Amino acid sequence: MDTLTRMRAFIDVVEAEGFSAAARKIGRSKALLSKYVRELEDELGALLLNRTTRQFSLTEAGHTYYQRASEIVREVDSLAETVRQSSGDVRGRIKLSAARTFADAPIGQSLIDFTRQHPDIVLDIHLDDRFVDLVEEGFDLAVRISRLENSSLIARRLAPFSVRLCASPELMAKHGAPTRPQDLANLPCIVDTNGRSLANWRFKGEGEESMSVAVSGPIEVNSPIVARAAALSGLGFALLPDFIAAPDVASGKLVTALDDRLLSGTGIFAVYPHRRYLPAKVRVFVDFLVHWFRTRDTAS
After folding, report:
1. Tens digit of pLDDT for each residue in 150-205?
2. Hey, is 95 helix, strand or coil?
3. Angle at the Cα of 284 (from 294 to 154), degrees rounded to 5?
4. C-alpha separations of 203 from 111, 192, 206 in Å
5. CB of 262 within 8 A of CB of 161?
6. Contact 224/244 with Cβ under 8 angstroms?
7. How far lies 284's CA from each of 67, 159, 273, in Å?
8. HSE-up (13 A, CA, CB side) for residue 148
9. What is the pTM of this model?
């Protein structure tokens, strides 16, 4: 049995957080995976996993080995996929991190459309509103909605992104439309705690600098979908992603304010680690997303 096979078995067990879960996921027996990992430990002369009937954890050596082994296996797979791409044979699994905001909104349809067009590629989608460590946690790429910051990652812009300050017509009539950002400090606001600024909303200042306004209100929630529902119910003003607010704004269920004071420069990005060989499946996926968003932008 070759080292690479044992290495893959070890990685599968670690990522599934147990032998039984890994066996179910990849369709191999628990006994076989245990055998592979034990042989790997014998080959290395080091204990990689602490395992009892109820607990499972990596040893210090196991943690170090997992990080490097994951990189090696990804490089091997990437090289193989690069060669396969020339023959049009692109297949495998893509481990994708995306914000719930992305997947829950209509643009999440892009993931469904890709899967329908590429049945030989499995999308392993993990929805999480935190910024995952792609290399540490073994992700192929992430779709992120944010300002692009300096990092060791490669980012490809998929589409622009903007927010709208919205409220129901009834709430706007009751309180009046804010004429400057500072007015929001005295108005009921719905805080989406996913945002980096939390309850300190940022706007364009009078000059070149941006400004922030501390807001508060009857509800704080880590979901723009729920924030939208709260705004529709008249609970307060909400900063909503444009792709979530647009249908309600178009129908008149929500009214916008301070459009000229909202910050720009954010976007939707496909982000992936620097690699010598970018997996063909990842390249195909990113190219698909770029085309998908461009087509929708053109259609709108």
Report:
1. 566 788 888 888 889 999 999 999 999 999 999 999 999 999 887 667 789 989 88
2. strand
3. 80
4. 32, 16, 10
5. no
6. yes
7. 26, 17, 16
8. 18
9. 0.61
